[in-house]
Structure to design on (798 residues):
């Protein structure tokens, strides 16, 4: 039983996601396929990288994550498959794996990358603008069936990595930025649990500044405060976030990705 | 072969639904998973309760319905699993089951409730703000694998019930309210087929009043009338509804959930 | 292992798609079910026909395509199942199959049509406004299980066909129209690779006129030109399209379905 996860910026109305499932099941009929997201902002590789990082740890060993956010489709950018620890990535070599790869390397897990250069592993006709259907879906299905990575392309060692903003140490704490706004309007920063360290023993004295608001003290969960109050807390994947209880912090603060996000430590 | 249905207010863009599928398949690899809705209005437990009521009867015995509309996540509200007739519910004990439970009790089917209090049945680390991933998904997967309900928590007998508005008898018929607006803009009321009784033998003489419109006579289906006409009829789950043929009754009437909805019987 | 694809105009918020999966799995528990689209514009049979044409070729033999875009539900329009080559269609006899049927006939593949007139193959209670759940889902599940088409209804030979606009030959090339706008804002025309013929050997000299823009030369893929430039190219299913690199051509040109779309050949 193999699992394939799909993430794209294709949206849900045109049938393109379903078509890729048809291709996968044509090669690996028993694959379980989970949609991670098809509402990545068009061409937003960074958003895909973040969601891949947050999602992969919750999938079983052997899962194949196929991600197609691919503004360079049909150009010289390489189609790629990778082993990242006990899981696989299939998609363009355009930096989508940056954040997950960093985590895997920190853990010391095995990595392996191949340039997908074997047309015999793809659909017979490859269209210039839909590699998701014609290259990546067949390759993901082969991996799901147990074909070894090395049979799908020639080894490479230099996958593209994005240059992502990191939070900076300040005299008072950390200065990061908003990196994601979720469906509820929660604002996630790139300041993580690791940055806060021992200050977390003293949560009530950590403050967060974002736009013109200051949140004093971290809460554990939304329901600790009344509806309509802004709160700061650690989100479900360890990032420091700002939320509005039963509402949208993004709308309240008129915040957007890239806004400065500051943590003041005791 | 076990079926799990998922309903949340998580939206579809952030990967959180896919992550829960990864967790479920990690424990129960053969589960068939159906998304019921992930577009429940944020924190709208009542909407989730209605869709659960309408959907459950069409799933096979043994289906596990996991519903996570959970404004109280991480607070004192109990995580719960329940047997409702031949199916299961997993999610917060916050009233989501109210309408389905009422139906199950009317039918005289067996019910059973447990407080999910056994961390050994969950993911090893439980985050305060994502019980869907860390508690409910693992528990749903255990149920799908056949683990008995009683092994997942201590029995309870007082699940929370919402106090839902019921239609009132009037001299002329029934006074209810709009309880749901669907994707097409159809307006569903809480007046049901059971309330209309023998009047249904005389459909042409039932009238419906909503906002400033009056619909005289119930039709059987939309296509009986020309495009652009407002019609009243029994919807697919037995509720009295108002529709605009090939259009949105909600937009035409500027109607919203809670608006008075009146049935005049012959 | 059988595959069922689902396409509807139901949207994703009301649970109706999930309910149909419950019905299908109740009859055929091992079916793999792929959502093609549930965001077809309400009652837009033509859009459903186009997406069915584009998607079906990528699914394995035996796939059952269930399409429910059904403004005539509950009226005299016939419920239908069809064999189209090695695949099946289940849905209303309202023209949804027009484009795929044309293609199948061009290929000389076998076709077969039945009027779904056997209530014993449906759910016990059939609602006037939700044949997707009560008639089409059970029939799709029976086909997925291997029940022969002829056991599901009486043969018919005159499925309804839509009268679809075809591009016209002009002194300079072809005059067609916009037939689809995808999630990215790409504008697809009904002028196809077959119309362009040998002119494709000379792509640099094909021009496209749409709204007030003229695109000179066809590119192979978006990334050949800088972000923000309008380009014309062959889309992933062989239609001539206009795109804005890393943007929405539909928004830039304020274009809509039905707009004239002209190809000037060398």
């Amino acid at each position: 039983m193999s699992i394939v996860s799909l993430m794209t910026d294709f949206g849900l109305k045109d049938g393109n996601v379903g078509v890729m499932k048809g291709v996968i099941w044509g090669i690996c009929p028993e694959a379980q396929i989970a949609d991670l997201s098809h509402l990545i902002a068009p061409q937003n590789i960074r958003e895909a990288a973040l969601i891949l990082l947050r999602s992969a740890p919750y999938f079983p060993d052997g899962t194949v994550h196929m991600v197609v956010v691919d503004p360079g489709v049909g150009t010289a950018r390489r189609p790629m498959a990778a082993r990242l620890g006990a899981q696989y990535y299939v998609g363009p070599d355009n930096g989508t794996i940056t954040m997950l790869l960093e985590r895997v390397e920190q853990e010391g897990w095995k990595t392996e990358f191949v340039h997908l250069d074997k047309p015999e592993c793809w659909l017979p006709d490859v269209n210039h603008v839909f590699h998701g259907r014609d290259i990546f879906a067949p390759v993901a299905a082969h991996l799901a069936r147990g074909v070894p990575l090395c049979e799908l392309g020639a080894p490479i060692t230099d996958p593209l990595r994005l240059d992502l903003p990191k939070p900076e140490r300040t005299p008072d704490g950390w200065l990061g930025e908003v990196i994601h706004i979720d469906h509820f309007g929660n604002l996630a920063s790139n300041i993580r649990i690791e940055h806060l360290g021992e200050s977390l023993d003293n949560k009530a004295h950590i403050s967060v500044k974002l736009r013109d608001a200051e949140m004093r003290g971290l809460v554990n969960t939304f329901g600790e405060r009344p509806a309509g109050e802004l709160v700061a807390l650690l989100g479900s994947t360890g990032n420091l976030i700002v939320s509005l209880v039963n509402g949208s912090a993004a709308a309240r603060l008129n915040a957007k990705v890239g806004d400065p996000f500051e943590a003041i430590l005791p």
Notes: Chain C has a mean pLDDT of 96. The first helix of chain C runs from residue 16 to 27. Chain C has six helices and 16 strands. Helices of chain C lie at 16-27, 45-55, 98-107, 131-145, 193-196, 249-253.
